[in-house]
Design a protein that fits this description.
Layout lengths: L2 H33 L3 H11 L2 H17 L3 H21 L4 H18 L1 H6 L2 H15 L4 H16 L2 H7 L3 H14 L4 H14 L4 H14 L5 H22 L1
Helix pairs in contact: 1-2, 1-3, 2-3, 3-4, 3-5, 4-5, 5-7, 5-8, 7-8, 8-10, 8-11, 10-11, 11-12, 12-13
Length: about 250
């Protein structure tokens, strides 16, 4: 090996380290943008990092933005980009459970807008379930996967007999995944909200009262970012509606 080649090695490693530092900084900036509600900026920064974690954050940011903020005429473009970012996140690192979860999150947001029948016809239910089961295959106690799979079972079960039969969804499985998630992250504002809004249908005997308790508990938890602020406002609306119905 020549002296020139020896001198090039430290330079090469320096470039690698600089690139890694830049990527880490980009993801940190993306996380800050997400927390502050600058969702498109967070998505751009996450995508620019070229990493699984960056793509994952991009998918999450775009899915939240599509659900709460985007104009109707831009919704399709944004949510499809969210799904692409989820796919890129999984492709970049198939062992990243959050990548699978955020792909499923984006698919779920798409399914919510297009409707149950269209979603089933497009195979979205299969895609979301497969992603979540892949996440649990990587980490059987991954809270986000249990939370989202609980919602998957609840929503498919609510779609009717044939949907339950085709996809093997059930209220019992929904409750199992939600309860397991509660054991793992009992103070998750998002989990208490997501479980709470579905619980009356999952437990017809005691679901309404427990759902109210969950939503009130979620309301008392701190708001850590803009997404949780939106969740907080949703909870207030639901509880106000329940109180108004009680007074009638």
């Amino acid at each position: 090996m020549t002296l020139t080649r020896f001198t090039r090695l430290p330079m090469a490693w320096s470039l690698v380290l600089l690139a890694a530092d830049a990527s880490a900084q980009s993801i940190d900036d993306a996380r800050s943008a997400y927390a502050e509600g600058r969702f498109l900026e967070a998505a751009d920064l996450g995508e620019a990092s070229g990493t699984s974690h960056g793509y994952t954050l991009a998918a999450k940011s775009l899915a939240v933005y599509a659900h709460y903020e985007v104009a109707d005429e831009e919704w399709s473009e944004v949510i499809k980009r969210a799904m692409r970012m989820g796919e890129e996140a999984v492709r970049a690192d198939p062992t990243n459970p959050e990548a699978h979860c955020q792909f499923a999150h984006a698919v779920g947001r798409y399914a919510q807008r297009v409707g149950t029948i269209t979603a089933l016809r497009k195979g979205l239910a299969d895609k979301a379930r497969d992603a979540l089961e892949a996440a649990l295959g990587i980490d059987p106690d991954y809270p986000g996967a249990h939370l989202t799979l609980g919602g998957w079972h609840a929503d498919i079960a609510a779609a009717g007999f044939f949907a339950r039969k085709i996809y093997g969804a059930s209220r019992e499985k929904a409750v199992y995944h939600y309860e397991h998630a509660l054991e793992l992250v009992p103070e998750s504002k998002i989990l208490l909200y997501e479980y709470g809004i579905r619980l009356p249908e999952l437990d017809e005997e005691r679901g309404k009262e427990r759902a109210r308790q969950m939503l009130e508990e979620a309301l008392g938890l701190p708001v850590r970012d803009v997404y949780e602020k939106y969740i907080h406002l949703d909870i207030l609306d639901i509880l106000d509606g329940l109180e108004a119905a009680r007074r009638r």
